[in-house]
Amino acid sequence: MEIGDKIVYPMHGAGEVVGVEENEVGGVKQSYYILELPMGNLRLLLPVDKIEEIGVRDVIDKAQLKAVAEVLSGRADRSVGSWNRRFHATLDRMKSGDILEVAAVARNLSRQNLKRKISSGEHRLMDLSRQILISELVYVFDKPADEVTKWVDEHIQKKVNDDEDEE
Fold first, then answer.
1. By C-alpha distance, which of 5, 101, 97 is closest to 56?
2. Which residues contact 88 (CB under 8 A, 6 or more apart)?
C-alpha cells in the first residue's frame, strides 16, 4: 500500500492513504497508515502489519459498477426471523467489506423503510451501509457525494414497484 491509494476499511468506508507514522503504544513501536475518510471527515490510523487481517481492500474499478447497479436495482431479500436475528445477519454482511453485500443491505433496508418505518437500529445500519457504499462510489465515479447518492437512490427505487407486487 502506498500514499495516495484509495482503499475501503470495512464498517467505515472508503478513504485515501495520506501518510505513514510510527507510534508507541504500551512500549511497542508500530507503523500506521493514516487514512482520511472524506465522508464524516474522519482520520484513522491502521496498523501496517494488520491490514489484511482487518479486511482492508482496494476501491473497486469502473468495470465492477454494473454488478453494484444490478444489486441495487435487484429484488430485495425477504425479511425473515426475529428483529435481533435479522439485525445480526445484516451486520455480518456489512462487516464482510464486500461492496455487493453492503449494496444489498442498503437496498433492502432502504426499501423496507419506504414500505414501513424500520426500527432505529436498522435505520442506523441503513444509514451506515449507504454511507459506506457512497464513500466508495465517490472515488469510482470521481463525482461529488450528492451526485453519487442520486445514482444509488435511482437504482434502489427501480424495483420497488416489482417488490410490492409480490406481497
1. 97
2. none
> DSSP 3-state assignment of 156?
helix
pLDDT band at 13 (very low <50, low <70, confident <90, very high): very high
3-state secondary structure of 36: strand
Helix (H, G, I), strand (E, B) or coil at 27: coil
CA distance readout (Å), 78 to 40, 41, 115, 128: 31, 35, 13, 20
**Cβ–Cβ contacts within 10 Å for residue 147, how many?**
13
pTM of the model: 0.86
Instruction: Give the sheet arrangement for strand 28-37, strand by strand.
Output: 42-47, 28-37, 13-25, 6-9, 57-58
